[in-house]
Amino acid sequence: MQHPHHLTRRRWFSSAALTSLGLGLGKVLRQRATAAPLTAGNSDSAVILVWLHGGLSQIDTYDPKPDAPSEIRGDFHPIATNVPGIQLTDELPLHAQVADRFNLIRSMSHSFGTHAGAHKRILTGRVPSSPRGFVNEHPSVGSIVSKLRESERSQIPTFTSGQRADSDVDSYAQGAAYLGQTCAPFLVPGDPSAEDWSIPNLSILPELSPRLSQRRRLLAGFDRLQRNLDQTGVMASRDRFDQQAFEVLTSAATRDAFDLSQEDPQIRARYGMTPYGQQALLARRLVEAGTSFANVVMEHPGGRAPSATVYNWDCHAVNCDVFKDSRWRLPYFDRAISALIEDLYQRGLDRRVMLIVTGEFGHTPRLSYEKGSGTGIVQPGRDHWPAAMSMLVSGGGMRTGQVIGSTNALGEVPQERPLSPSDLWATVYRHLGIHPEQSFLDHSGRPMPILANGNPIPELC
């Protein structure tokens, strides 16, 4: 039997991470208080970003082309929605029932065809200098919101990211770049639908409590010594920030927000007891509790994957049969996203919270055929295609039930209302009340505006 005071290697690292994170958070809160004033916007507003790593195949979901040749339109058929004139593919029947509560952007595009370059282009709103590597040279949008939001709701993380357990802040280009690591997301690793799921950084392990209290006493003693020499009042404020940092990591409010067992079982079932469903539900709980930017990385939908499918949304023929993969993946996705939209509206969060569902690019309109690495047989797939992609947006007090922009008859390029990722984030910053012309100093001391270009999308304002 393991001694109750013995720490396994894994539990030791979890404990150490919690303690160091508390100290780091205290530091950043002090830095924010002494920095030049910046407009943090409306602190009551929030964003949920559902990130579809690998890229959404727009023709098989949000931008069907039923009149195109078979090598483009694929196996799926369009269905009507509850908004006249808006069609989706037949794999999204639950989306179709709530189409009056979201908008589709069908004319988004950029020029980066690698996962790394496209991640950085979308998630920062800036053109990266290199298409390789997931380490940001500019901060992600969530990191900017984290930097600006010296939130009055100090007992909940400002920027969170739900993602697979073996990933980090750079796995999906969510890094804070020159804003510093303390503006990176609070990671929410693993599968929230699993019975044994927990957040190590939020669970005060019994064996950690004495050491955490001892560390706080050490800090207090050190600060009392320095306060005796300090006549400016700066050191006196330091206790407040360290206290705030510990409150974020140990508060009942934070633990409650992450505790899905407190949710109505019927609501949990509506989302689906899957990684997609419970990740979406957790994001709603977090923004309801006070998180400003909740990122949700949806990759594997859970369970045992059938043959000819792939872990994430990267539907090359070498990876999967795009139609078999979609028939497996899309029902989970359909259920989770439609439930999230309904839940935001039913709870009255639709004005305060903006939902964005997107990947880093679209996929080729024309099918390609290759031998699958897992199946050994020739199968259909779609390759990377940043020239045209679709996004879903909902909430944010916007008028909904709209399609914004279009692609040409073959789905190759935007035809009406071409838009860029910078336009999307200009719209989001407007919702958050953040002025994108504000700037931060980069590593070389140059002022860098939040956005270098981009205009709010009028239909979404």
Descriptive keywords:
461 residues, alpha/beta, Alkaline Phosphatase, subunit A, eight-stranded mixed beta sheet, two-stranded antiparallel ribbon, 12 helices, 16% strand, globular, disordered N terminus
Word description of this protein:
The protein has one domain (47-301, 325-460): Alkaline Phosphatase, subunit A (3-Layer(aba) Sandwich). It is an alpha/beta fold. The model is unreliable at 1-23, 28-36, 204-208 and 232-241 (pLDDT under 50). The chain is globular, with a radius of gyration of 23 Å. It has 12 helices and 18 strands. It has helices spanning 9-34, 70-73, 93-97, 115-124, 141-148, 209-229, 234-250, 252-258, 265-271, 275-289, 322-346, 421-432; strands at residues 46-52, 78-80, 87-89, 102-108, 159-163, 186-189, 293-297, 353-359, 362-363, 368-371, 378-381, 384-385, 389-395, 402-404, 406-407, 414-416, 439-441, 447-449. The strands form 6 sheets. Strands 6-5-7-1-8-13-4-14 form an 8-stranded mixed sheet, sandwiched between helices. Strands 2-3 form a two-stranded antiparallel ribbon. Strands 9-12 form a two-stranded antiparallel ribbon.
What's the gist of this structure?
The protein has 461 residues and is an alpha/beta fold. It is built from twelve helices and 18 strands.
